[in-house]
């Protein structure tokens, strides 16, 4: 049995990755600050922000899947986990003789990206690229599926007769969390994915309001009225109110504004995976 160390194992994507690893006969070992019932993996206790040894079974690992990260707008200390935490787990992998490293970044990561979240993800990518490890970097679009905090708040909005939304001109490509987890799994044995950076998007390009309409169609069986805040006022309103209804913070809105609508066909070819549409989880628009 091969052992795979997963950081962020209690998170939205991390849980899905661990479940799929276990089903495929791998031993998923989850790095966690404290053991809890949400961990679907063999626990190893440790903190990426502390220079302390990890406490767990003495296993030899074949790969690291680095899922740990903050949500856009979740904290003012986003750089600490994304950058220092990544440096810590990269150093630990090299000390342990692990060569295969899969890093979960984010769509729009870049040096000059508009949000701290995306800039810190890009800095973490550079740490991985320069590590000397056999890396694969995955940049998923907005992920949907059971357990998504963003989609749970969008569902709250869709559960009303009307929804107030900032106008998002760029289109987004929601990607199913199960597809991202499957790509992580296949990266463990696909040599052609080594040294690659993939942008992962679903098959549909849509505006944020279309995503909410999908959900409303699933919940109510009818469409809801969407009231859009013009883009030029959205940033001011979001920062003054903190959040529009249950939906977006200013950081989340800026992140969505920078979503790049494109399909990276390389991952479709390299992984041989046909991405699922939003309709597998929510009723299609009619």
What is the correct CATH architecture of the domain at 3-148 and 173-203 and 261-275?
A: 3-Layer(aba) Sandwich
Helical content class: 25-40%
Q: How many E-type strands?
A: 11
- Which residues sit in consecutive blocks of at least 5 with pLDDT less than 50? 242-246
Spatial shape? globular
- Global structural class: alpha/beta
CATH topology of the domain at 3-148 and 173-203 and 261-275: Rossmann fold
Q: What share of the residues does DSSP label as strand, in percent?
A: 15-25%
Q: For the largest sheet, list the strands in their spatial order.
A: 3-2-1-4-5-6-10
Order of helices and strands: EHEEEHEHEEHEEHEHEHHH
- Biggest sheet architecture: 7 strands, parallel
- Assembly context of the chains: single chain
Number of helices: 9
N-end to C-end Cα span? 47 Å
Report the average pLDDT across residues: 83
User: Could you name the CATH class of the domain at 3-148 and 173-203 and 261-275?
Assistant: Alpha Beta
| CATH superfamily membership of the domain at 3-148 and 173-203 and 261-275 | NAD(P)-binding Rossmann-like Domain
The radius of gyration is 19 Å
